């Protein structure tokens, strides 16, 4: 069985999502389907079709979470330290062309959220940064061509 690295916070979010889907979302969509069925002809019943589509999404997500959660390997980021970029690190990089500085946290694939500054350990940026330290320049493959960034800070808090 393949293990997926993840922070304790990421695992807690997935477990909470699974709990909400099973305890709240699934029963609600079952009620919506029953209510839509009561309206009669199902072939032209938009409410029924929308509820069935929602049910399909919910059941698919539950199955996905139930397969991911047992395969998670929790990495205790609080015990990590050092100067090299590794899983769980907050890495500040400076785009050498545009002087644009950004900070990212390297996390597991199932907890990555670019909007919140978390990138997957399997992303091209994270792969390029892993093992490097402050002051290193790194070539990062990008859709518009490779770009060069410099690591300005690495922290594990």
TrEMBL record:
InterPro entries: GreA/GreB_C_sf, TF_GreA/GreB_CS, Tscrpt_elong_fac_GreA, Tscrpt_elong_fac_GreA/B, Tscrpt_elong_fac_GreA/B_C, Tscrpt_elong_fac_GreA/B_fam, Tscrpt_elong_fac_GreA/B_N, Tscrpt_elong_fac_GreA/B_N_sf. GO terms for molecular function: translation elongation factor activity. Residues 83-155 form the Transcription elongation factor GreA/GreB C-terminal domain. Keywords: DNA-binding, Elongation factor, Protein biosynthesis, Transcription, Transcription regulation. It comes from Plastoroseomonas hellenica. SUPFAM superfamilies: FKBP-like, GreA transcript cleavage protein, N-terminal domain. Residues 5-74 form the Transcription elongation factor GreA/GreB N-terminal domain. This is Transcription elongation factor GreA. Necessary for efficient RNA polymerase transcription elongation past template-encoded arresting sites. The arresting sites in DNA have the property of trapping a certain fraction of elongating RNA polymerases that pass through, resulting in locked ternary complexes. Cleavage of the nascent transcript by cleavage factors such as GreA or GreB allows the resumption of elongation from the new 3'terminus. GreA releases sequences of 2 to 3 nucleotides. The keyword Ligase does not apply. It comes from the Bacteria. Gene3D superfamilies: Transcription elongation factor, GreA/GreB, C-terminal domain, Transcription elongation factor, GreA/GreB, N-terminal domain. Signal peptide: none annotated. The keyword Isomerase does not apply.
